[in-house]
Write a sequence for this structure.
């Protein structure tokens, strides 16, 4: 860590800062320039972070040299991580040149409907089936999901079609149950900074799909991933799903540059979710392809065989035949940038 002192800092204040740093068992390296004095601090990282160094008189700024997301950073893990979801022959891979294909309805509605959708996306090339058993809805009167019955249906139909399954956990009390039935646990945008939930999900050791919050920076997303990693669970896949912007032409602002930025900062794979980013099915294909071209390690798309009857987010779902066409295009773009599905 580097302590930058104010131009007006006195010799007594500089001495006090050095003494304070040394009293914490840390090393202080003083460097005086023409206009600024800088003190380099070396020592135990946790001790440095917990010390209120910015409150010392004469200190202008305290700058971390190492990122706060230590376990998620490239420094800790220079090679890109490959996250496997599922087991046996039914394994989907994300990262390290692998592109995972997650698809399915927003909510699990019935066995018959989920079965038809799963069969269609499997044929199209999807590698993971998604479906919400618990739904965090803006309105308390909207469909909240089928709960445990939905989890059992998702597992049954995923196994039938040879697809690993991912579903969202929205409450720490449900984490153990969700982990029992799902191959991968999703943490939605609303819960990206639900730190109790992050910690509980981290303890399961299940692969985690973590969506970026609607007002979160890339570094905020990585700090949330750090909560899961800190529990000894290295299996985190990040997801760019758009952030709130000032233009209401789309549901959210699709931040494609978050893909290369995340790869620069972290070893964790990151996928794109153009369904939630745009909220408009006619824009999903172009945004999905743009994400893969930018280096995304997977694509998450909502698919429904009758969007007008969907109990959740029907207007942003692709029809199975539309998804099949898009999946072929994604495969071509992935191959063009040296990746495989």
């Amino acid at each position: 860590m580097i302590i930058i002192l104010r131009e007006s800092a006195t010799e007594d204040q500089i001495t006090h800062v050095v003494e304070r740093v040394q009293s914490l068992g840390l090393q202080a390296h003083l460097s005086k320039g023409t206009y600024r004095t800088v003190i380099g601090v070396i020592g135990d990282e946790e001790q440095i972070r917990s010390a209120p160094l910015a409150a010392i008189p004469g200190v202008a700024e305290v700058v971390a040299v190492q990122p706060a997301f230590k376990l998620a950073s490239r420094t800790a893990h220079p090679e890109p991580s490959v996250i496997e979801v599922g087991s046996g022959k039914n394994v989907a891979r994300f990262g390290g040149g692998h592109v995972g294909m997650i698809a399915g309805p927003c909510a699990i509605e019935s066995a018959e409907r989920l079965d038809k959708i799963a069969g269609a996306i499997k044929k199209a090339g999807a590698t993971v089936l998604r479906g919400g058993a618990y739904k965090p809805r803006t309105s308390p009167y909207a469909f909240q999901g089928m709960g445990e019955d939905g989890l059992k249906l998702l597992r049954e139909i995923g196994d039938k079609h040879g697809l690993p399954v991912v579903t969202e956990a929205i409450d720490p009390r449900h984490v153990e149950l969700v982990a029992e039935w799902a191959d991968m646990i999703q943490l939605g945008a609303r819960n990206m900074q639900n730190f109790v939930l992050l910690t509980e999900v981290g303890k399961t050791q299940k692969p985690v799909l973590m969506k970026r919050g609607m007002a979160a920076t890339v570094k905020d997303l990585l700090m949330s991933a750090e909560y899961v990693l800190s529990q000894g669970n290295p299996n985190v896949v990040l997801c760019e799903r758009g952030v709130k912007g000032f233009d209401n032409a789309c549901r959210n602002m699709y931040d494609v540059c978050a893909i290369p930025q995340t790869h620069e900062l972290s070893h964790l794979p990151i996928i794109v979710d153009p369904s939630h980013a745009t909220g408009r099915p006619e824009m999903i294909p172009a945004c999905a392809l743009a994400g893969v071209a930018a280096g995304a390690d997977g694509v998450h798309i909502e698919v429904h065989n009758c969007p007008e009857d969907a109990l959740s987010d029907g207007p942003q779902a692709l029809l199975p035949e539309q998804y099949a066409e898009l999946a072929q295009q994604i495969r071509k773009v992935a191959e063009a940038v040296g990746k495989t599905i």
